[in-house]
Amino acid sequence: MNAQRPLGATQTGLPPGPRFAPLQTALYMRDAYGYTRRLRERYGDTVTMPSMNGQVVLTMTPAGAREVLDAPIDHYGESFASSALTPILGEASLFPISGKRHRTERKLLSPTFHGNRMRALAPAMLHATLERSRRWRDGQSLVLLDEMQAISLEVILGAVLGVTDPERRELFRAAVLNTMNDAANPALIFFTGLQRPFGGIGPWSRFLQNRDRFRGLIAEEIAAARESSASERPDILARLAHATREDGAPFPDETIRDHLVTLLIAGHETTASALAWTFSELSRNPDVCRWLLGEVAGAEPTAESLAGLPALEATSREGLRLHPIIAEFFRTVRQPTSFQGFEIPVGAVLAASILEIHQDESLYPEPQTFRPSRFLERKFAPHEFSAFGGGHRHCLGSAFALAEMAVVIGTLLPRFHFESASSEPPAVGRRNVTLPPKGGAPVRVRFR
């Protein structure tokens, strides 16, 4: 690794790094892990990574990540690549907005996503898991990512949207899958020039058509939720439909819609990928399976108890540590900022590599080893464990994701053993900005 500048020294301009953004973006899309590691080996712990959405100053260390998170909120503006994601997530989504509006919206939304409230949705998570697993047969070949996406989608339909009618659920299921499959194309995010209608043909036009169809279904559900009482439904949509702003006014329909779409896209794909990676690791680590089964067997077998079991949460966190679903977290600089000895100009983007931080041996001895118990031995700060980002942009749905992972793992593990279909672990794939197992992690399922 190249030597860093002397401690305390300050340099003007951006850190060193490669050039020609189209090529670098393509290399990064193809292999985020390998690309980041090569950057660090050549340029050091702080590097400028060119992208099609602007210059990114990337730190590879926990100390650098802490510096990003500790900076005052008013140093930062809109999210990185917000213009690329706004057509997908919506203008009212928490992701593209910044400043006072972001703080206000987040404060108002936070009670809806409180950890205890998310555990109240555990029965819906349990139901979705059992319904899907009843289709499996002993010795059947499965693709973990496909199965976890199916479970996660049912959780979204029930716990988030509150859709109960079978025909209605089928309409939503098709709309969600079509929208998600189109949005999964990474080129639409990394090369925003492709976000063009091109005469009504092509992936972007298809996405817009499916997105608008999905938005129409959500609008109908919002209207129905407003007509029901707040106590009738436990789902997130019902809570948002009856939530109010500081002045007592209800959230506009478009705001609720965009928050739900964000939760769908950010939660459905990421949680499914995290579950697929975690079950893949469990299939290769029988000692961890036995340890976890011992913990689960001693718990009261209810959805609520599973969602609060420390061993299950530790297993979920270890899966997310070893296989981060998002490669970095970002902050756009809105005023000149000193960072890692460099003076960063307005408009540049600060980022921390979750991939590299989660492999730091000083934090995680034997970082390539899947050992969930490390999360029971100590707590990790946001700059040390960054699967959900950190600071004022910490993922609002983190409690929901951890509760879902705990219920799914705690329900399936005592019932099924997953045998990996390959002697080699899955490679890292790419769906939009997420990093699922390439090929979906095929397994053979065995009844316990």
Rg to the nearest angstrom? 22 Å
- The CATH superfamily appears as Cytochrome P450
What is the total number of structural domains? 1
Any idea what the CATH architecture is? Orthogonal Bundle
Name of the top-level CATH class: Mainly Alpha
pLDDT averaged residue by residue = 87
Please explain how this structure is put together:
The chain has 448 residues and is α+β, with helices and mostly antiparallel strands. The chain has one domain (11-447): Cytochrome p450, CATH 1.10.630.10. The protein has 19 helices and 10 strands. It has helices at 21-30, 32-43, 62-70, 82-89, 99-109, 115-119, 122-133, 144-160, 166-183, 187-190, 203-227, 236-242, 253-284, 286-297, 303-307, 310-322, 354-357, 374-377, 398-412; strands at 11-12, 46-51, 54-59, 141-143, 328-332, 337-339, 342-344, 349-353, 416-420, 442-447. The strands form 3 sheets. It has a 4-stranded mixed β-sheet, sandwiched between helices. A hairpin with a 2-residue loop joins strand 6 (337-339) and strand 7 (342-344). Helix 7 (122-133) crosses helix 19 (398-412) and helix 13 (253-284) packs across helix 19. The radius of gyration is 22 Å and the shape is globular.
Summarize this, please?
By secondary structure, the chain is α+β, with helices and mostly antiparallel strands.
Secondary structure layout plus pairing:
Blueprint: E1 11-12, H1 21-30, H2 32-43, E2 46-51, E3 54-59, H3 62-70, H4 82-89, H5 99-109, H6 115-119, H7 122-133, E4 141-143, H8 144-160, H9 166-183, H10 187-190, H11 203-227, H12 236-242, H13 253-284, H14 286-297, H15 303-307, H16 310-322, E5 328-332, E6 337-339, E7 342-344, E8 349-353, H17 354-357, H18 374-377, H19 398-412, E9 416-420, E10 442-447
Parallel strand pairs: 1-7, 3-8
Antiparallel strand pairs: 2-3, 4-10, 5-8, 6-7, 9-10
Helix pairs in contact: 1-2, 7-8, 7-19, 8-13, 9-11, 11-12, 11-13, 13-16, 13-19, 16-19
